[in-house]
Amino acid sequence: MNPLAQHLNDQLVDDSPEILSMLSRLGQSMFYPKGILSQSAEAKSTKYNATIGMATNDKGKMYADTLFDVYNHLSPDEIFPYAPPQGIETLRDLWQQKMLKENPSLKASSISRPIVTNALTHGLSLVADLFVNDEDTILLPTHNWGNYKLIFNTRHNANIETYAIFDQDGHYTTNSLVSTLDNFKQYKAIIILNYPNNPTGYTPTQEEVHTIVSAIERLAEKGTKVITVVDDAYYGLFYEDVYTQSIFTAITQLDSKNILPIRLDGATKEFFAWGLRVGFLTFGLNNQKAK
Ligand SMILES: Cc1ncc(COP(=O)(O)O)c(C=O)c1O
Predict the structure, then answer these.
(1) What's the pLDDT band for 49 if we cut at 50, 70, 90?
(2) Pocket test for ligand 1, best of 147, 270, 280 (most atoms within 8 A of CB)
(3) Which pLDDT score is estimated for 191?
């Protein structure tokens, strides 16, 4: 058991042993990743707090005026009707159009209609529910977002294997991922690709994307089932000379039935819409077309 979960349980032994005994095995294993909590606490006393996950300026939280404006123009009939579980159909279509516009190499016939999720965290949980069995391997860069461990390892008992994305000189490298994929021997690989990367902000160049995608293709050609989960939480926050389409787009161009591209993106960071908690789950389809 994770020491953080153990610590929480130890507190319950003293405070509420009855509740501890009511918790399921999973409930007793849950914890809040320490990095997120302790960093936020530490950051409170600093001048610049880079841990809050929100964009701010000296006036407070940043948001899009156009989004704020929406609230003045919606009628109650547009706000209150029950939304279907997969999300409001118009929203799904609009998001799909947005994806296609921003990703000129992405074909409409290569993707599903996006399913609306309760932001990216929920999308990641759904992906884990759908695709992860005990002991499956999740490939993650050593620099990764703390909640992946909770979602994939604690909840679903997957093994987390990490690879470096920076060399000894601090330069981005694809070498470690490529050699991990070239030497991968199991039936199924679940690869989480998160660019711009949390916590480093790095986004690969076109050439680096090509190298990553070719390694995925080689692995699939050997018969491994490859589930590529693209976490695009920070999509659009690009700098310098990088590949500005989602790496999901590049993966949907691979013609292999052994590859399943999945994209998770949403309004949280892209539209500075921190509290709306609206995300999308989209599957790549091109590999499934009838031969
Ligand atoms: C890499 C990454 N993925 C997912 C999320 C969660 O996004 P959301 O708040 O939309 O659930 C975050 C939030 O910080 C993140 O950094």
Answers:
(1) confident
(2) 147
(3) 98
